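Title: Comparing notes on inverse folding

I've been comparing how different people in this forum approach sequence design from structure. To keep things fair, I'm posting one structure and asking everyone to reply with a full sequence. Here's the target:
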């Protein structure tokens, strides 16, 4: 039973490391009758046809695979492992700093950018209004939103299949803020890994209280800023500035939103940290099925590195290039050893590349023992990024984007429904005309005010509104009412006639639609 549980954990990890490749096959079972009294395997036999013999159980884990036996974020006694990653330095870190500056600049500037007098990006989930690069998607365009999300997901699948977790390491707001903002604040106030550990173990002196207060106050301020940033994408900067400049009691719900989001971000960056990636994030969990042996990931070149051996001065070295310095483990923010192969916890932050390159430089070996590469490239020196799988995803993506493009181009600014009033019948008028009563609804699919008029194109006839309805539509607004359509009997050839109507704003035709008109049988 215990072995079975362990085997479950094995399957949970996606691992492409050579040392564990032999137990990755789901058809690999242990001959249980021949296992020793600890339940550990005496021999491992792959079952060629995939059958699972009755007297065989999933393979137990040997000590060399023991890293798979537990989650790096949890200690042996079930408590959380709090990681103190060493301050990263090096070429890849410098590149990431530059990229972070660029991405944070874009993130903070974008809410202020406007296109056609509306925000460039807006994700108002509260009112179901979205603006994506000037394209307004209102509640009526749920299909457009659904298709946009679907093509975005297919894009993510394609991107991940080729480039692995590049997004996680470089652009994900969680990693960007955690590693490049909150972690930097922590290093600046509490020092590097060793000093942080000492400080946490030290008694509560005045100095410790001062440092902890400074750190957590800074965390709170940054969390508040991020909460405002998030809200600027949800409600727009104009609404946000009202909350800031006007009395709070006029904006209690939105102000509460800022407070709640500040608390959530503070909790996330001060406490949850790496576990947001390893436990909460669904994208991280999907890596096992999205990536394959050709995906580019941060990987340890086990062909070059193994067998590992510490460096002994004056000794002829016959071992691999890994000198077992554990620097790659010390810098890892998720506490894993990349030499065990690609693991679900790895966010591809590149810190271990820099750490290993520094060591390689020091001992005079070539850099790149840990690098961006793929399992296939390590094994055969060749990487095939364009595979049948990526081709298939690309075709699906092109189809989705084409459909999306067509729907956007052919989309109208208004959507009108005009139905005969329920239970109503045609009316024969004394002047030789027939009337039908209709109810109508006009939806504004833009974010601007629209003043529509409805006209009957064919056959010739008259539209008569019941009362004087105000058809002026606010952005994403709706207007409704009832109207009569009156048509001369002579123009009606059958009991049921198709009518063609148009919606105009001034001289601009916004939409054309059809409905039916009932008349007495000839
Ligand atoms: S294994 Fe390397 S790339 Fe992956 S999270 Fe750890 S330090 Fe970052
Ligand atoms: S940093 Fe490089 S040399 Fe040192 S343990 Fe890691 S892989 Fe081996």
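Reply #1:
Here's my take.
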């Amino acid at each position: 039973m215990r072995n079975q549980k362990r085997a479950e954990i094995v399957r949970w990890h996606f691992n492409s490391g050579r040392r564990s490749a032999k137990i990755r096959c789901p058809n690999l079972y242990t001959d249980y009758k021949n296992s020793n009294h600890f339940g550990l395997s005496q021999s491992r036999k792959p079952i060629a046809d995939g059958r699972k013999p009755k007297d065989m159980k999933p393979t137990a884990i040997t000590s060399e695979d023991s890293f798979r036996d537990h989650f790096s974020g949890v200690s042996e006694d079930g408590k959380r492992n709090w990681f103190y990653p060493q301050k990263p330095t090096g070429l890849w870190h410098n590149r990431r700093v530059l990229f972070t500056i660029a991405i944070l600049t874009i993130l903070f500037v974008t809410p202020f950018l406007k296109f056609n007098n509306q925000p460039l990006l807006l994700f108002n989930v509260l009112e179901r209004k979205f603006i994506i690069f000037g394209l307004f998607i209102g509640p009526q365009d749920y299909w457009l939103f659904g298709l946009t999300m679907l093509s975005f997901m297919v894009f993510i699948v394609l991107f991940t299949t080729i480039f692995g977790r590049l997004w996680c390491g470089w652009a994900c707001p969680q990693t960007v803020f955690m590693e490049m903002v909150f972690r930097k604040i922590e290093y600046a106030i509490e020092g590097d890994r060793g000093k942080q550990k000492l400080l946490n173990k030290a008694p509560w002196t005045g100095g410790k209280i001062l440092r902890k207060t400074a750190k957590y106050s800074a965390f709170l301020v940054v969390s508040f800023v991020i909460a405002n940033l998030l809200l600027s994408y949800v409600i727009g900067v104009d609404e946000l500035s009202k909350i800031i400049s006007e009395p709070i009691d006029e904006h209690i719900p939105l102000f509460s939103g800022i407070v709640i989001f500040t608390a959530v971000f503070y909790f996330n960056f001060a406490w949850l940290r790496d576990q947001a990636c390893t436990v909460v994030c669904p994208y991280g969990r999907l890596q096992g099925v999205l990536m394959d042996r050709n995906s580019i990931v941060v990987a340890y070149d086990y062909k070059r590195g193994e067998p590992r051996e510490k460096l002994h001065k004056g000794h002829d070295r016959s071992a691999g290039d890994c000198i077992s310095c554990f620097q790659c483990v010390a810098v890892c923010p998720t506490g894993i050893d990349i030499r065990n192969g690609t693991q679900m916890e790895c966010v591809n932050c590149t810190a271990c590349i820099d750490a290993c390159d520094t060591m390689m430089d020091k001992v005079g070996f070539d850099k790149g023992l840990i690098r961006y590469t793929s399992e296939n490239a390590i094994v055969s020196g060749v990487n095939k990024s364009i595979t049948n799988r990526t081709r298939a995803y690309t075709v699906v993506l092109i189809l989705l984007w084409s459909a999306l493009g067509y729907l956007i181009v052919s989309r109208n600014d208004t959507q009108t429904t005009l139905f005969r009033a329920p239970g109503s019948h045609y009316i024969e008028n004394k002047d030789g005309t027939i009337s039908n009563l209709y109810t109508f609804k006009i939806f504004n699919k833009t974010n601007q005010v629209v003043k529509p008029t409805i006209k009957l194109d064919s056959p010739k006839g008259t539209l008569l509104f019941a009362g004087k309805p105000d058809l002026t539509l606010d952005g994403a607004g709706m207007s409704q009412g009832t109207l009569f359509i009156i048509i001369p009997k002579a123009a009606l050839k059958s009991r049921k006639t198709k009518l063609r109507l148009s919606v105009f704003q001034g001289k601009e035709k916004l939409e054309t639609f059809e409905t039916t008109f009932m008349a007495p049988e000839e």
